[in-house]
Every structure is written in structure tokens, then in C-alpha cells.
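# step 3/5: fold
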Amino acid sequence: MNPPNYPQVALEFMNRDHAEFAALRQKLLDLLGGEVSNDAVDHALAELGEHTRRHFADEEQVMRETGFPVYEIHKGEHDRVLADIAAQVERWIQGRDTGALRDWLDRAVGSWLVEHVSSMDFVTAAFAEKKLRSA
């Protein structure tokens, strides 16, 4: 369970949100690595989902405001991730499978964060920062 290693992007709010997401992910991994309290995991999963929804909404607003040319592709990825989070939360609630949830958070979520920030968010932030600076 290594912390994700992703680049900083050109917009500070995105960097702050990425760090918060990584911390929430780590909090969940820590919870799942010890004596598991279902209520604590439920709360932390809700926190991760809410944080992610807010972050994606903020990013999408910046993309719309700056006329980001591949907005629909980036938003589609956001929609896919939110659906995946919802599905994983439902699986957790139905089965309380600590190993499956820990594996998803460690592997899938960690890899996704690095890949998404390194590609889509990096390009989006550079484009938006340039547009906002020249406005």
C-alpha cells in the first residue's frame, strides 16, 4: 500500500483537492487495516464520495468557464468514477468484505488517481490556468 505518486498541476485548488482525496483514501486503508468498525468505514466512504463529487463539480465548472475543448471526455471519466465509487460502496454495504474494499482502494483507486492526475487533470489545469491568466 504505497501512497500514490502524482504530479502537481497548474491550478492550486486541484492540487489541494488531490491531496485531500489521497488522505481520505489513506484514512480508509488505515481503517481497513485494523479492527474494522463498519460505521467508521461507512462514514469515511461517504466522506470520500462527497469530496470527489465536489471536486469534480469544481473542475467541471472551470472547464466550462474556460471552454476546455474536450470537456465531455473529461466529464465522462468523472461520471464513470462516481458510478464506480457508488458501486463499491453498495458492495461494501451488502457484503462488508474488508479485503475487497481494501484491494479496490489500494490498487484501482491508487492507480486511477495517478493516471487521471498525470493525464487529464494535468492537461486541463494547464489549459485553464493559461486561459484564466490571459483573461
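# step 4/5: annotate
The first helix runs from residue 12 to 32.
# step 5/5: archive (pending)
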